[in-house]
Every structure is written in C-alpha cells, then in structure tokens.
Automatic annotation (TrEMBL), chain A:
Domain ABC transporter: 4-239
Protein's UniProt name: ABC-type D-xylose/L-arabinose transporter
Signal peptide bounds: none
Subcellular location: Cell membrane
UniProt xrefs under NCBIfam families: PRK11650.1 (NF008653)
Species, as recorded: Haloferax denitrificans ATCC 35960
Automatic annotation (TrEMBL), chain B:
Protein name, UniProt field: Sugar ABC transporter permease
Location, primary (coarse class): membrane
GO process annotations (BP): transmembrane transport
Highest taxon in the source lineage: Archaea
Presence of keyword Transmembrane: yes
Source organism: Haloferax sulfurifontis ATCC BAA-897
Annotated TM spans: 31-48, 96-117, 129-155, 175-201, 222-244, 250-271, 283-304
UniProt keyword list: Membrane, Transmembrane, Transmembrane helix, Transport
Subcellular location: Cell membrane; Membrane
Amino acid sequence: MATLELDSITKTFQDGDDEIVAVDDISMSIDDGEFLVVVGPSGCGKSTTLRMIAGLETITSGTISLGDRVINDVPSQERDIAMVFQSYALYPHMTVRQNMSFGLEESTDLPDDEISRMVSETADLLDIPSLLDRKPSDLSGGQQQRVALGRAIVRDPEVFLMDEPLSNLDAKLRAQMRTELQRLQDDLGVTTVYVTHDQTEAMTMGDRIAILDGGELQQIATPLECYHEPANQFVASFLGEPSMNFFDVTLEGDRLVGDAFEYPVGAEIRDDVGDVTDLVLGIRPESVELVEAAGGDHDFEMTVDVVEPMGDENTLYLQFDPDADSEGAATLVATTDGLTPVSSGEAVVARIPEEAIHLFDRNTGEALHNRSMEEAAQQIDLS
Amino acid sequence: MKDDTLRTDGGTATITDRLRRNVEQMTIEDAGLYVVLLLAAGFYLVPIESGLVTSIKTGTAIVQTAPFAPPGPSGFTLAKWQAAVEALLRGMGNSMLYAVPATIISAFVGSITAYGLTIPDWKQSYKALVLALIIAGIFIPYQAVLVPLTQFWSQWAQLTDLLSFVWALGIPDDYVGIVELVVTHVAYGIPICTLLFRTYYKTMSEEMIESARLDGATLRRVYRRIVFPLSGPMFAVVLIYQFTQIWNDLLFTLVLVSTESSPAAPVVLILAGLGTSMEGQDFALRMAGAFFAALPTLAVYIFFGDEFAEGVAA
Amino acid sequence: MSNFYQRVRRAINLSASDDQRVGDGDEGGRDAVRTDGGVVSEDSRNPGSEPGVLDRLAAGIDGRLGSDFLESSIFWIPPFLLMGLFVYGAVIWNFLISLTDYQRFANAPDYSNLDFEMYTRALADSGFIDAAVNTFILLVAFTAGTLAVGLILAILIDRGIRFENSFRTIYLLPMSLSFVVTAQFWLWIYNFNNGIANRVIGVFGLGPISWLGDQNIVLWAVIFALMWQFSGYAMVVYLAGLRAIPDEHYEAAKVDGASTLKMYWRVIIPQLKGATISAAVVLMVFGMKAFDFLYSLVGGYRPPNGADILATKMVREAYANLNWAYGAAIAIVLFAMALGVIGPYLVYEFRRNNL
C-alpha cells in the first residue's frame, strides 16, 4: 500500500484561443488507507482531478506519485487503480460474473479458477452471489451500484477512485450505501479518493475532506475542522445547511459596524484581525440563540419574517429593522428547536455569541478569526 | 378502438396524442386522411403490381387486358418467368459472389474505422478532419473515378496474372471482374459504413470505455470484448443497407465486367439488356426478370424493413 | 527544446517504473494479484532495455495528437488509405487524364503534354451544354419535388394513424429496388400503347403521349419516376425530424389558437431545417447517380433524346466512343457540381461539431 501524492497539479484546456484552467496548482497527500472526500460545486475541477489520478486526463504540469513512483505518464491500465463511475459503466452484454472478472482477465495472468474464486469472494463480501449470472439490465439501481463496487474491489487495487457513485440512487438507498461504503473501506483499508458535490457525503464519510472551488484547493482537513475552522469564506458558506450568515462590517475602534447593527468585539479577536478593517462577520444559524430579553451588546431585538418548520428544528428568518422591505434588508437566519413556538411577525431577541463568530477579510475571503473547535465542543457540553 | 382511445384520454395520454385524437374525432377529415394515405400507397404499389401481373401474361393478354389487371385463365403463363430465370440464374450467382463478401468486408472495415475514429482519445479536431474526408467520399459521383478505375484494374493491378492459379482450376478468367468488384465496392463502401457505425459509437457510454481501459484492456481488447459485441444492431443495419446498395449497383459492373455475355456477368447487367431485341420489347420477360433480380433485396426489405429504414435515415 | 526534455523525462520515468515493478515482484507480494507483477505492460515485456529513438518519437507523437493516437492508428489508417486512394487518388488521376488527349485503344494516357483542350471542347459541344442544363433541371426539380412529397407524407403519417408501419413500409419499398429494376417498371408504365400513364390521362380525354419519345417531356417523365422511387426516403428523414419535436410545441401552438395548417407552417416546418438540408444533399447525390436508371431504360449508353445528363454523357463518351480524356473532363465538371453541393454542407456540419 502506498501514499498518493499530488504535487502542484495543474490542468488547462484549450478552448479556441482561450486557455481554461480547470485545475490550478493543487497539492495534497492522501495517506495509505485514508478515505479522502473531494467536494465542491459543479465545475470546480474535482472530477478533472480524479480523472488525472486515474490517467484519463493528461496532466498539464505537476506530478502525481503513488508510493515512490511518479505515475504521470503511466497509462491508466498500469496504475493499479480501480474506479467506480457515476453511471456505474457496467458492460451491458456481460453477466455480473463476467463484468467482475473482466479486469482480472485483462490485467493479470491469473488462471481462470483463481479469478472465479476471487469473484465469488468479492460477491460474498457485497452480498450479491445470487446476482452473479444476471445481466446488468435485470438489476435495480442499487444492485448495479454494488456490482460496480465489486468490479473495483475484486481487482484489489492500490487506490479506489469514486466519481459521485451514489448520486444516481434515491435518498433512502443513498443513506444506506453511505454507511456500507464506509464499512467496506474500513475493512479493506484501501486508499480511497471519493468525489461528490453532496456535503452530507463529504461530512459523514471522509477521514478528511478537500474542498475545491474554481480549480483551486480551498482547504483540506477533517470534516469538523473544515466546518468549525474554515480557511476562508467559501468553505464557510459551502458547508452547513442552512448556510452561514454573512454581514459586511467595518472595524471601527472596538466595534464592528454593519448596515443594520453594531457589534463590539474583544481584544483577542481584534488581535486576530490585525489592521484589516473591511471584514465579513460570519455566524452559523445554529449558533444564534433566542433569549428572553436583551441583556447585552450582543443581543438584538428582531422581527421574525418567515418560519420554515423542519420538524426537528425551525429555520427562522429574522430582520433587524421590522419596517424594512423584506427584499434586500439585512436578514439573520437562525435555527431553533422544533418545539419552540415562533410565528411570523413576532418580535424576538437574538443573541450572537462572541465566541461563535467568524471574521473574514472582505477582499481576500481569508478567515482571520474562527471559533476554536475546543470552544465549540465545550459549548455542546454545556448545553 | 376509437372508444378505447377516447376513454384513456384523461389519463397518461400526452397532449399531442390528445391533439391527434381530436383530429380523429372529426370523422370527415379522418376519413379523408386515410383516403389520401391509401391513394398514396396505391401510387407506390401500382408500378410494382402492374409489373407483377404483366410478368405472368401471354403476349395476347398483354395487348388485350389493362396493364394493371390480372390475366384471365387463358392469358396466364409462367413461360416468361421460366425464361427469365434461365437467363438470370447465372447472373444471380455471380452477383452473390461479389455482393456477399463485399458487404461483409465493408461492414467490418467500417466498424473498425469508426471505432478508431470515435472511441480512442486523440485530438478531436484531427479526428473530425479525417472524418470529413471520409464522409465526403459518400457523395462523390462515381463518374469522377471511372476512367482511372478502368486504368487501374486494366493496366496497373494485373489481377489476371496474379490469380493465374485460379484460372488453372478451370474457372474462366472473366471472374477476375468479380474480384475487382469486391475490392472496388469495399473501397467505396468504407465511407457510408464508417458513418453509420460512427453515429452508433458516439452514443456509447464513455464511462464504460474508460472503465474497460482502467480494467487493463488495450484498445484492441476493448474493441473485441466490449465494442464489437455491442455492435450487433448496427451490423444488422449496415449489412442490410450495404447489401442492397451493392446488389443494385449497375455502374461498376458495367465498367468492370462490361459485357452481359461474359460468364461473370452480374444479374443487373444481364437484366438491363433483357427482353430487348430487333422485334421490339418483350415486356412480360422484362417484368419477370426485374422481379427475379429484385428477389434478394425484396426479401431483405420485407424481413428487415426497420433496419433498412434506419440505414437510409442515418 | 522544452518538448525534448519532456520526452526525455517521460522516457526516464518509464524505465524507473520498470525497476519499481520488477522490485515489487521480487518481494513476493502479499497476494496473488501482485505476485505476477501487477499488470502486463509493454515496457515490462522487455525490462531493462533503454528506451529507443522510436519510443521517444512515439511519445512525442502521442503527446501532440493525444494519448491513443498511435495505438488507434492501426484501426483507421489502412481503411482510410484504401478509401483515400480510390476516392481522392482517383479524382486527382482523373483530372490529370482530363488534361491529356487520351482516346481510342491506347493502353495508357500520354502525360507529357497537358492542356485544357478537353474543357474548351466541352464548352463548344452543344450536347454537353444540353446535358449540363438537364442535369441542373433534374437535380433541382427532383430534389424539390421529392422533399415536398416526402414532407406531406411524413406529416400525414405522423398524425397518430393506425397501420402506420404498413404505410411506411409501402412508401419506402421502391427505395429498396435497383434502378435497373424500377426502370423496367417505368418503361412499361410509359409504354405508348398499353402503358398505365396513357390509360390514366385517357380517362380525362387526354393523350396518348409519347412519354419517352417526346424531347420536351421525357426529362419530366424521368424525374417523376425518380420521385416515385425516393420520396419514401424523404418521408423517413422528415418523420425522424417530426418525432424529435417536443409535444409542447404542438400544444403551445394549439393553445395560441393556431389552425392545424398554420401550426405546421409556422411552428413545425421551420424546425425541420436540419432534416431538409441533409435529405436534400442525399437526394441530389442520388439524382447525380441517375445514370443507372437511364441506362436501363434503353439498355444502352444513349438515353432517350432530351434526357441526356452529364452522368450518362460521361460514360458514353468514355466507354462507347472511347474518348477517355473527354469523358474524364466531363466527370470533373460533374464532380465540381457535387462539390458545390456537399462542400458547404460538410463545412457547415464541421463547424457545428457534428461530425
């Protein structure tokens, strides 16, 4: 087993006279046996990155190495990599058994009985021995998904690459396969790179997640780090549903001054910010608290504009200025317990706790101050 | 039937269907539609039907009965069919001799050409250029290559000498024309066969091919194990279309075999001169011959009409 | 220069990966897949050999043209060459021959004295001018007429009728027949004494007409027969085009209050532009190949007076009169006409990335 190393990988496409940079100078190192989820909006370069690792796209510059071996110019079939595609890409004219044997037949000199033994073992592992003699067209989406996985597993590769493998399944099956994939990856211990646009998959499945935007790597860290200590405003907004509240503010003395409110901050935070004055204040909806009465500088009297009951929780859209037209006015999104009765038009007091805020440089998007993960953990303990 | 369709109306029927059914409800317009369609069908069938009845008429019946009416019992004869079969049977065999191999070879060659120009990964703009050159070949008027073709086969490629061992077996060396026809039809069949297979291969899942390559298969193995086994439906289309084209072609046979008296003369060549003599034209014989010569293509069309339609529509 | 270094680096990488793989095998691997050395690759077949000039050249070509270029060339280059020689090689050769004075029973043209004499001769030949005019009339009238009939049939058949498949099969049937065969049928239909054509117009008190004997009529009689044979083709192409139009367009037009006729004229037919273009190109090509039909009509090189087209004139000059060079020159004119039709079409498809 080996570490997969991407070093300053860049990919440009030629489109007429324009050069389009699909992947821009990405470096990361995926440890042996690690499950890395690459996530980002569509067009962020995540699939291109995966296809470069697979050898399906050429690399414009940079190197990819597996262990000590640079694999830039090694043809895909010699990279010892297996890939699971979004469409599963099963061979429609072959039975499940033939689908699973194909890779071993083409890439090894193993005798037939050995191949068939490995296929049956893998089928057992995936609970699909009964499907072995059926054709892909006779299988349900979930079954096809398992066969596609089996086809990758049976080859016992150094690295698994998965390109949105669950996105064609319905929601329930997807949740089930998510757990199962994690279990399999734990058992097999094969280095896995998993591409998705779904943040739930990213948060729940990966040992670490790599967040891409515009072809650039935004952050690579554990899911909780990315969530609580985002490297920049993009990461902060990409993870979390509903997404983080952002307010443009200016640091004036010890106060953050926004269009709708002023917010005093302590010396510690001012140290983090340094001499940057154009800032963005970020606060996650679940960090906003509703309190009985205004009791400090961080409490704001607000009006409930819209309530979206989700069952376990309510999503509230709060307005600083009750007279403002709901379009374009500063709105604070907060999530509260689903059982707390709140209705539209009601006046409430919202507290934005100082220890939960994030501050970003408005020009670069870079995070200047994040809540620390320890504090976040403490807060959970207290409540 | 109409009641049935109307009853399902509210359910899953699409708007167009409903719209079309609205048209059906207007019975006068509806009837008119079918009358027009039947008249058109008549228009397409009359020349063929008239040929068929004429082929079984005696000389007097031809003059006395309407051209589209069947002959009475006294005017019925199969003599013309017998004569046509006698005159054309040898030609049928000769046509088979080149049409079958040329069809199979050109379909296969078209398949691998289209594969090489569609599935492997190389510069799209160069692929498109090569394809444009190949597709242009479909539209070349063959007159533009006839004189060089004659030169090539008569002066440059001395097949008659090369195949002397064949003539030694007692086969007349006229049959060199058959070999020339096979090669010629394959060469000029490559463009259309490539185009037909290309449209098919373009729709193949790219991920499936990538998956096969990641599984360790070389391009050759991908063709043999994935693409070729999946090409069945398109092979049916191409084989049928190509067979019809080659069987029906007159120009190349005229130029390469030249005389209908040659032992290697294909059926179209013999048919073109059949029933013409000094005394005038023997229409019954001509019709019988036309039908006999068209039998293979008619059979193909009747049994594989859908594939034929798909081939011409591409 | 940088290209060269890239190639060298690539070559070194290849041999490095060789060593790696051999080492892997020596260690004995952990499982069956890997003990055999992983994958069978080209470079592991002769381990240790220095990458040759050829390998580097190959890497360079692949780098420029795409990673599969060399491996895929075996599939398409031989057929492409064969077809290229027979099509483009022959057209160029034909052009050369048209510049010579090649005629009669000489074995080969004399290429030492090239001029455009055959083309000036063509311009002075009234038979050539007539044939060119006839070719033009035939192409335009046949293509337009066939498209119109095909469109009407397609619209009628697309109206959700019963027995749709049977009607379609009947309309397309003539297309499966050889020109040689259909020529026999039409010869009989156009027969002066017993032909159906004269019987039909006789019902209206007209005729009889000598369809194939009258110089002013014969070309139109031929065009009519060709339309009979190919309108089914136009119908199939239009039908595919109609089926590709979403149902919503019919719906929207109907909701907007358009009458059926207006709906087709304003909404549906404009969307069939693509189908019309491709069908027209193919029909024109069929029209240029009408040689087979005219030859079979008379069983000889000389079509009825008034129906001579370039295709028949070319073959007659070359193979009956043995004026090889003159025939070649006519062929070049015909080729130029074809190019005038298909050249723009192919460029149009190429630009739209449709190839």
